[in-house]
Amino acid sequence: MNSISEKYRLLKEISGSHSPSLNSIKEKIPELKINVDACFLSNPYATELFLEYFKREMLDTNEIYSVLEFYPSQNKIIANYVEKQLNIDSGHIFICNGAIEAIQAVIHRYSKGKMVVILPTFSSYYEYATNECEVVYYTLDKTNNFKLDVDDYIESVKKIRPNTIVLINPNNPDGGYVSQNEINKIIEELYWVENIIIDESFIHFAYEDDDFTMKSIVSNVLKKENVIVIKSMSKDFGIAGLRCGYAVMSKERVEDLLRNGYLWNSNGIAEYFFQLYSRNDFFERYEIVRKKYINESKLFFDNLLRIDNIKIYPSRANFVLIELLNGLLAEEVSAKLLCDFGVYVRNCNDKIGLNGEFIRVAARSSHENKIILKALEDVTQIN
Amino acid sequence: MNSISEKYRLLKEISGSHSPSLNSIKEKIPELKINVDACFLSNPYATELFLEYFKREMLDTNEIYSVLEFYPSQNKIIANYVEKQLNIDSGHIFICNGAIEAIQAVIHRYSKGKMVVILPTFSSYYEYATNECEVVYYTLDKTNNFKLDVDDYIESVKKIRPNTIVLINPNNPDGGYVSQNEINKIIEELYWVENIIIDESFIHFAYEDDDFTMKSIVSNVLKKENVIVIKSMSKDFGIAGLRCGYAVMSKERVEDLLRNGYLWNSNGIAEYFFQLYSRNDFFERYEIVRKKYINESKLFFDNLLRIDNIKIYPSRANFVLIELLNGLLAEEVSAKLLCDFGVYVRNCNDKIGLNGEFIRVAARSSHENKIILKALEDVTQIN
Lengths: 383, 383
Known about the structure:
13 strands; homodimer; Aspartate Aminotransferase, domain 1; 2 domains; alpha/beta; Aspartate Aminotransferase, domain 2
């Protein structure tokens, strides 16, 4: 047991500020049996739906073989599928090899000067800053449940006068949500910021009404030259292995990025996914599993509230940030969950801006959520 | 027929200086039946070999589903597989989403000042130059069969005093080969050039002896801080849809590139391929199909020599550059090949540095080579 947890510690060390992937764990610690990957933020029902189509249209037809053999289409051609689904003008979409490629492209190319990053955050946003960019942190208040105080944020940004601001909505790792009206207010008031990056990678899990309607700001910002919306498809569609993402920005910026790069950055299966994404038959069924997953996640978060010695922070994403209380340590709790129960969660010790002991736990299928609940209940008991 | 060729012309127009992919053609011109894709530079026997493993290890086991659902490993972990196969120290490998990502990364980051590019060439090398980089061309002589005159090249580079030189070996689109001794001479004499980029994407098809031994310079240049070897896996392994490539460079440069980028730039199937690539059972079988393909390609090139009204330039790659003589036009010949015979070849009209009418034709399986031969014989007849 100790040797497993030691091997995991080493693997984590070489993975830096991100968690080792399931593949890497399987490869390096084959004796470890993972039952539930609650580190991984994705909708398992959407994965099932994608795989159903993939099996029928790619495997059963042997089409998969051509898709692997031949060159995929160029960036602009794949962008057409996204434009069709989002019902927007051609030229606003930059297709990327996972949202992280868009983060890299945008920050490397446009973030020169100060960049305001809200803490806690997804670490790539500050890690990808180049020497020409100075990261300034705006830290969310734990005592305010990591809720963004929009007016205070706007005032702070006005004082800092940055070139770039980054807002992940819902935020990772706490799941805090900023309403569409508030986002619009931020964009209006901070109109002079050259790059307003809104990361909507978890927006499919957020809602403002009982019908769980999606609340993306994409259509509101097409005319704002300074707004860039970044979107991962890995979480909502449960397809991290495909590396699919896109960013919505002005046509000039898309042209600028494509002028000398990013020509063939999608693989053949990613291209198939984007085609699928543009199809109504697929999207209608996706909407059903999206809402089913939100429903079950809400129930899971409610059940977590009953466990002693932990605090659950409010989330509109598909994960919750959990603070460990009464002397429980994140490293110990996550190691026990992994080694004793095969439940893989995110130890947040390396997350800057978090003061205390925190883990992040993803919602999975209702069956897996029960396993997580039971395991967490066990390891957080204090005798 | 005219409408097909018109549709193709439009598709080509939006594809810029590259050919439309087979996927794009299928999507936009469904009525067009392509029998042989001789635009696409890859070893079909290697594709078959990969797909055999892929079917057994990914499809039959259902492992494919996990590979698509979960995050692939990080760059450095996948690099270990390549290091193992190349038998080199850890830290020299930069994994990329197709070789074109390495071209972009290296040129954007390191090519500041003059860059000498040999013409004709793969267009991305000059297209990816940024504003900080001035491209200077060194044009190969058609009357010398596009053979690089190494001494003249070295003298020219000494006069130009560039920051970067690019050498594709064998060269694309002519297939001209520079021997390992000559490459070493270039590297020795031009030791002061900050970035010597050697693109070995077609090196698996080149040979200097009757046994077709591979002649990569990777092991000779590990201690040269200024040499960067770029390698596509799409051609030799026949897996363009996977987007697999790597670059070999100094550990400092790999660290520098990974410091704020390129973290998760491989998809799950690309990771599987790199694992396979590191395995001896796979590699031994690959060597057999590599040599079989070289043998058949040689035969194909010899047979092409018998066709009238064209000139075949000597090639050690898996394609030949063909000059059309006696008034034949590249646009007409390639359109006829496509529309009348379903044979897709590369019309080289957009290749700079080519003075005349040229098409590039890839070697395929021996069966497909016969179809190409017959079609080409037909469309180059002059009545």
